[in-house]
Amino acid sequence: MRIKISILFVILLCAGCKPEETIQNIPAVEAPAPVAEHVLIHNARIYTIDRGFSTADSMVFSNDGEIKFVGNVEPMREMFPDAKQIDLQGKTIIPGLIDSHAHLAGLAVSLAQAQLQGTTSKDDVIRKLREHEAGLSEGDWLLGRGWDQNDWPVQEFPSSADLDQAFPDRPVWLRRIDGHAAWGNSAALAMADQDMSGDWQPQGGHIYRDEKGQASGVLVDGAMALVNKAVPEMSQELLDASLDLALQNLVSLGLTGVHEAGASLRVLAWYQQRIKDENFPTRVYAMTDGAGETLDWLCENGAVIDESGRLFMHSVKLYIDGALGSRGAALLADYADDAGNSGLLFMPPEELEAMVDKALGCGFQVGIHAIGDRGNRVALDALETAIARYPDNPGRHRVEHAQVLTATDIPRFSQLGIIAAMQPTHATSDMYWAEERLGSERVRYAYAWRALLNSGARLALGSDFPVEQVNPMLGIHAAITRQDIKGWPDGGWYPEEVLTREEALRGFTLDAAYAGFMEKDVGSLEPGKRADFIVLDRDIMKVDAAEIPTIKVLQTWLDGELVWKR
């Protein structure tokens, strides 16, 4: 059309010209440049993360995102002389990183709330809440997430009175960093759907009370639902804006895949609409939010496999206990620092077994949240029973976190073919107080990555964001050092459990892909797979380990398309 218009324009301009002048003055019309069918990345240090952990200097992929060749550049130039060539000037390439346990929707929601991570005291929390309140309308709840009493001078749970003076009328509801406890003021607690006074406790939850039997301000696990039901929903406009920020955060940090550990049908529809709008630059492997409505829908309709390759749901997420930081993790013996408290089982073991049976009967993978040693044993028992009952089940079942184990339960992961989906930064966040919670004997079997790997189990690594920071470089650093970013403690915390760099990278790439039945498509850079890769400013395999948290992602590619550039 542009060529026709150009010729017509010249003809009109020369309507009064002599024939020879017309011929001389018509400019040459250039045809549109053809789009290259292939892209050749060269002069790079490519860690393929294949089973041989091979390296290469070049890679060719088609414009539909399929890797064609990985190796040396000269044969590729001969085979693809018309390919678009990109010289990376010696930069490092690794496969796109995959977080095997995270909460993308939760991250989006949290970004619209008060950010309380890193607060050092109750006064610091109040200061951040006042800053956030300035942007609220009258009648809005003041919501936040990220507080951790273990980082405060007095490591005791706070009370509603700590919030009431600053916020006497506006409901304030603040989720702990692990998401397994919430702290509210009196206005928020008054919204509970039943009287919380007395000595009763909800199934799988705990209400902290004062000496008069009144709720004192903190609700743990199953008790949070009493107030959660009253919290107003965010607008779709704010949700979309927050998801935009969350997705850009992911790709800027090199994450091309996320395993969403608990998604509702509503979240699934939200993601599908974003994919339809071509505004979803990552892959999500979603697990259901329990064994209820979402699993019922899957049992009736089958697994979700979006044709875009960006969204899958083939897994069921279940919970058996709480978290260690809020003393909700179910232990076989009492907490070392809280006599009489052995944590919370969210349901009787037989109820968990029924849920696992339901999932396997419908042909789906199961991932069970289990943190305490009792929680992990109950989870392993339920999976072992169901696997025997449904021998044709899809396998690759998972224990999410697998945080505190026993010597006798560690080998069961390999024996049952169960994946340990673990988060290295949980160890480096908890190591300051974990031994106080567990005692010196139990802590030896906590965050036991090496012991599990040596027993033959497969690890899939992640972060559990927004519980921890999104940046996967922090997870890789924690896995290979068991130190914080300041290098504490010298030599690492229980250093016998460290991983090698190769093992840590596989945990965030190929083994994470395997845990989501996606290893044939992503997780390594090999012919036939998708061109999901990232370009780093330094060689992650060669820099000093202390530098790894500061490694920057320069480019993120998904399906052979550049989706983010620093």
Characterize the structure shown.
This protein is of the alpha/beta class and 566 residues long. It has three domains: 38-90, Urease, subunit C, domain 1 (Roll); 113-228, Diaminopimelate Epimerase, Chain A, domain 1; 236-517 and 527-565, TIM Barrel (Alpha-Beta Barrel). Helix content is 31%, strand content 22%. Mean pLDDT is 93; it is low at 1-27.
The gist of it:
By secondary structure, this protein is of the alpha/beta class. Helices cover 31% and strands 22% of the residues.
Number of helices: 20
Give the biggest beta sheet: 9 strands, mixed
The name of the CATH architecture of the largest domain is Alpha-Beta Barrel
N-end to C-end Cα span: 37 Å
Low-pLDDT segments: 1-27
How many E strands? 25
Radius of gyration: 27 Å
Highlighted features:
31% helix, disordered N terminus, Diaminopimelate Epimerase, Chain A, domain 1, 9-stranded mixed sheet, 25 strands, TIM Barrel, 6-stranded mixed sheet, alpha/beta, globular, 566 residues, Urease, subunit C, domain 1, 22% strand
Strand and helix map with partners:
Layout (H helix, E strand, L loop, with lengths): L1 H12 L5 H7 L12 E5 L2 E3 L7 E2 L1 E5 L4 E5 L1 H7 L4 E4 L4 E4 L1 E6 L1 H8 L2 E2 L6 H12 L8 E6 L13 H4 L7 E5 L4 E4 L1 H4 L15 E5 L5 E7 L3 H4 L7 H17 L2 E9 L1 H12 L6 E7 L3 H9 L2 E2 L5 E9 L29 H13 L3 E6 L2 H17 L8 E4 L8 H7 L2 E4 L1 H7 L3 H9 L6 H6 L4 E3 L10 H10 L19 H7 L2 H6 L17 E4 L16 E6 L2 E5 L1
Parallel strand pairs: 1-6, 2-7, 8-15, 9-10, 10-11, 15-16, 16-18, 18-19, 19-20, 20-21, 21-22
Antiparallel strand pairs: 1-4, 2-3, 4-5, 7-23, 11-12, 12-14, 13-14, 17-18, 23-24, 24-25
Helix pairs in contact: 4-9, 12-13, 15-18
